[in-house]
Structure formats: C-alpha cells, structure tokens
Amino acid sequence: MRADAARNLEAVLTTGARMLAADPGASIASIAAEAGVDRRTVYRRFACREELLGAIYEARVTAIEQAIEDARLREAPVAVALHRYVENIIAVNRTWPVDLARMLAEDAIRRRRDACVAEVEAFLRRASGEGLLRRDQPQCWAGPLLPELVNLAAHRQAHLSPGQAADVVVDTYLHGVGVPRQRSQDPPAVRARSLDQRRDAEVRSGTRPAVGFAERAGLRTHRLKGPRTWLVRS
Amino acid sequence: MRADAARNLEAVLTTGARMLAADPGASIASIAAEAGVDRRTVYRRFACREELLGAIYEARVTAIEQAIEDARLREAPVAVALHRYVENIIAVNRTWPVDLARMLAEDAIRRRRDACVAEVEAFLRRASGEGLLRRDQPQCWAGPLLPELVNLAAHRQAHLSPGQAADVVVDTYLHGVGVPRQRSQDPPAVRARSLDQRRDAEVRSGTRPAVGFAERAGLRTHRLKGPRTWLVRS
Hints:
mainly alpha; Tetracycline Repressor, domain 2; disordered C terminus; Homeodomain-like_sf (chains A, B); TetR family transcriptional regulator (chains A, B); HTH_TetR (chains A, B); DNA binding (chains A, B)
C-alpha cells in the first residue's frame, strides 16, 4: 500500500471508530467526509458499514496486541510493565473506542482477544507472585477491575495524557482512593509499629522509662541508682 | 392494591428486569410465564414492552432512593454509610439490572436520578472532608469509580452476598488491590518506621548495640564495663 493510501485508510478507520462509538448509525459517507477522504475510495474498500466495523475491530485487536508486546508483560519489572500496559491500553481505548464484545462471534477475532486476555492474566499472576498484588482478593476481581479502571480513565479523564491517566489508574488499582490505612483498620504488623511509635513518644516526653526500649528488644535490664537510670545488657 | 396483586406485580417487574437485561427482545408473554403470572393480567397492566420497561426503571430509581435513605449518607459515620450504601446498591443492581441511561430522556426519571447522584456526590465530599478519601485525586474520579466497582461486584461476584461483596468493594475502593505500600513508595513517616524496625532487628540479632534505642530517644548513655553494657538515663 502506498504511504498516502495507508494514511487515508488509518484516518477512515480511526474516524469511523470514533463516529460509530458515538452513533452506531453513522454513514460511510459521513465518516469519509469527516476523515477528509474521497467517499468513492472508502466504498471501493468497504462495501458496507459492517465491513468497515470489521476492519475497525481488527485494528483494535492489533493495537492491543502491540500494547501488550510493548509493555513486555513477561519480562519487565512488574510495576514498570503494569504502568506501560495501562498507558498503552488507555491510548488504544481512546483511538479505538469500540467494544470487542460485539465481535466475539468472529472466530479469528475471539482467538486473538482470548490470547490477549490470557497474557494479561498471566501477568497479574506474576504481579501477585512478586508481591505487587494482594493474594487475599476473591477470584475474578483484580483481573476484571483493571479494564474498568482503564476505561474510566480513558474516557472520563480525557484531559489527561495516557501517561498521566495511567498514573491515576495504577495508583488507584494498587492503593485505592482512600486515605492510607488508619490505625483501627491496620494489619497487626502496622498496629505494632504504631504502638512502638507511641512508646517512643512517651519515652521522649518522659512519661515512660527508656528501659522499655531494651525490654522490647528482649534484653536484660537492671535498675541502678534512682528510678530513671537503668543498666542494659545487649 | 391487594397483597397478592402487589406480589404478582413485583414478580413481573423483577422477572422482566432480569430477562430484558439478558435479552432486550424478551416478550411480555415469556416474562409472565417465567414470573408465574397470568399473561392477561400482565397485559391489562402493561400494553407493551416499553410500558413494562418504564415501570421497571421507575422501580429501580425507587430502590436506589431507598438504598440511599437507608444508608443515612448525611448523618451516619462515613465508613458505616459507605459500606451500607454499597451493600444496598449491590442488591439493587442484582434485582434491577437495567441501565438507567436509556431512560434519562424521561424528565421525571432523570430528575430523581440526578437527585440520587447529587446525594452520593455530597456524601463523597463529606467522606473527603472527614479524612476517609484522599484529596489528591483528579476531579470526576472517585465518584464515577464507585458505581463501576459496585457493578463489577454485583455481577462478577454473584456468589457473594451483598454484604460480602460490599466488603470487597469498600476495601478495594479505599485501599486498592495492591500489597500495602512498599518501602520505596512509602511516605517519609512510614520509611522512618521501617528504618526503626530494621534497627530493632539488628539489636535483637546482636549486630547493633541496644543503646541505639536510647540514642534514638535522645537519652544520655554511658558505656559501662565491657563493650555491650550501657548506662541509660531517661
């Protein structure tokens, strides 16, 4: 295909994706006009809207495959791969705002889409295995949650670049939108740290003898001359 | 309305909501049969599918209004109100799995739905004000995120009760699905705690003298007989 023909095809497909997402009844003529491409050229390639839609879905799947490959989901550090994948898919969702669910009847598309889903699921298992994702979540939760966040960011945070929107998605995906855990909601380890902090503060303010530090560390202590002097053996 | 007539109507509406969500072309006759209600009784009330759909949308809005009222969004403690609201709306989404977006052309429905949205937005502002939600998030993020999570839990975690599903939604909404923040991503306070923890571990293992505890607390220390015995004044 010549370079200008390729550019025209790309313009017809991306314009068509955008217009058909907003109005599924948009005509090929109106899409050609909006894309600035001669209507007869478009008709020569796509006999009807369904053919154009098929090409758009194909372009979307191809873009998703490239997004996954570019993110190096199997080998890049998980946190890096997650951000790159999210950033890439936000861009895909903006360029190709079409729902693949409608095309799953097409065998070839469904196979390619299933392979993408499997790749991302394997990545999320790796992310759990490497300690990025919690393991105490129900099945079918972290997986389906990610595309929902990506989609929300792609369309409801349209003023953000894909990279900025990915910052928000990854942050929310990993940490939620709540203020970081408070004492009463903390897991035991964090509660313990926080008790230690209180004790430190008490020692500094003189309301608790410093020997508490040593006791906490399992060291032997002996009180020496006066109530606030201690012998510590480590 | 007599009690059995009210029960029949309820059965027709909930069965209709479920069947029309799965297949928008489901017939009134098939809905009546599934609901176990005489077809003529249903036709007397709803001349066509659109009328039945209108009644279903109305029932959904009413259920949402009740869910909000029951959650006492303006006065209950925010964490309690958030969980109750989520639990209630999960139940609403399961009973009335219809998308109100289609009905927003209807003035009365749109006004009632807008009032619900405004009530929830006011609640989320209260939740931010009271320190439950972060304030460093972009506009139009925490708000639209909540119904996405609720919807995902309602339908993708169908084996969980509304209460259990609400546990998952609220936990993810507030804390995400990532392992709690790691050292490199931590705010300074947490990093400091974690340094202290490392020091504690070193003292316990004997690789750092216990007096570190005292020094950390700003106390005077004197080395006594031998390298590992210290005098601490607090």
